[in-house]
Automatic annotation (TrEMBL):
Binding-site residues, GTP: 22-29, 90-94, 144-147
Biological role: Increases the formation of ribosomal termination complexes and stimulates activities of RF-1 and RF-2. It binds guanine nucleotides and has strong preference for UGA stop codons. It may interact directly with the ribosome. The stimulation of RF-1 and RF-2 is significantly reduced by GTP and GDP, but not by GMP.
UniProt GO molecular function: GTP binding; GTPase activity; guanosine tetraphosphate binding; translation release factor activity, codon nonspecific; translation release factor activity, codon specific
The protein, known as: Peptide chain release factor 3
Amino acid sequence: MSTQPAPRAGDNPERRTFAIISHPDAGKTTLTERLLLAGGAIHAAGEVKARGAARRARSDWMKIEQQRGISVTSSVMTFERGGITFNLLDTPGHEDFSEDTYRTLTAVDSAVMVIDAAKGIEAQTLKLFEVCRLRSVPIITFINKVDREGRPPFELLDEIADKLALDVAPMMWPAGMGGEFEGLWDIERERLQLADGSFSPAPFPAAHADELELAQAGYPAFDEAAYRHGDLTPVYFGSALRELGVEPLIEALARYAPGPRPQPAEPAAIDPASPTVTGFIFKVQANMNPMHRDRVAFMRLCSGRFKRGMRLNQVGTGKQIAVHSPVLFFARERETADEAFPGDIIGIPNHGTLRVGDTLTDGPPVTITGLPNFAPEILRRVVLKDPTKTKQLKKALDDMAEEGVIQVFHPQIGAQTVVGVVGQLQLEVLISRLEVEYKVDAVLEASPYDTARWVASDDAAALRKLQEEHRSQMAGDRDGHPVFMAKDLWDLNYIQGRHPAVRFSATRERR
């Protein structure tokens, strides 16, 4: 079954490429399932969480995800509804997540922020929101679990406004919450969705009318321009588990969420209306199908009409890559993509040719910007239990570094590789995948270093001086860029002070 709508003459089919961001347990997986049900991508409740290998729309496929019931990679799910193709990029909600999460948010045009009505804005939600804000990604808010006991709606809206510095425009309003919950009022269409999910011509329950009147008077009306600029969030209340408020949410995505937006690039931003085919690799995933030991690069198409078999230039290397077998994703399932349009996410099977940050185009050289590496917060040494598996370990570390699960640093002095991650969970992912996918038994040991910084200088002599004076703390990343390994924050500040001509950076743009 194809999910691609028929192209319209002289125009690209409409696309909505979005992510769902939330703190753990806010209901993201359930909401994802309800959206996929609405789009016909799955046909029964529970398929997203199902553990059967053949489940079409399951987004959590890695073994550690199955064991712990959490998402640690980002998946892509494509579905169509009402002539619009929706590309839903699932992001990990666990507090320990990888750079893969950051980079996935660079590939979307909008986001849905899920908030637990009882807990409000939590740490992970705030962190993911800040990543969205860096790129002015428009956000629709879905306050979930209103059928349970929770905080007052006004308190939740004021918290969003205060903590996120966003204007809030309620689009729905709950008639009571928890034990007093009677339904949801669609403010725009003036209709009531009852607690059983049906829509009723009945007016808003009189017992809660004062609250609704106060909400409509006290908060600004929805402003589409302000929303698309990232200054205002429309707020929907509901219960994903009971399919309440989901229909208005998906309608809002179709009506208000932007289609493909211009992508930041050098020498100039990429216009999605340009006929030139341009895309960038934001994610690489190895071993999605362990039977075939495959490697798939996820490309966000930014402009042009891509057709299967096209030859695209890999900017940076100058190589031409023939894309013979591009795929669309339904989580673990794939379907050959004969064509794709701006906003689509396609997978390109390859054997290490493509890397995160690569730009592909059939036109003049252009480089997508804004896909950085982040300085790791945890550094560890990897020690093999079986020294004869050195080659397999190197292959595994290279693969996972390419995916963004870890970063790999090679010290100038000493043979033991140092790996860096931005969250503790990624270390568990590393060990699990070494064992399951690469048949390598290894342990992690403490590193004498606490953090790492990329170093560069316009003065070659100044950089050389740093490298000579601190050889024991110098390393190279997987691309050979020099890295200073600091023992702690005091050490980092001290060395920075002694080498003012050298830049110590916590991020490095991937080119």
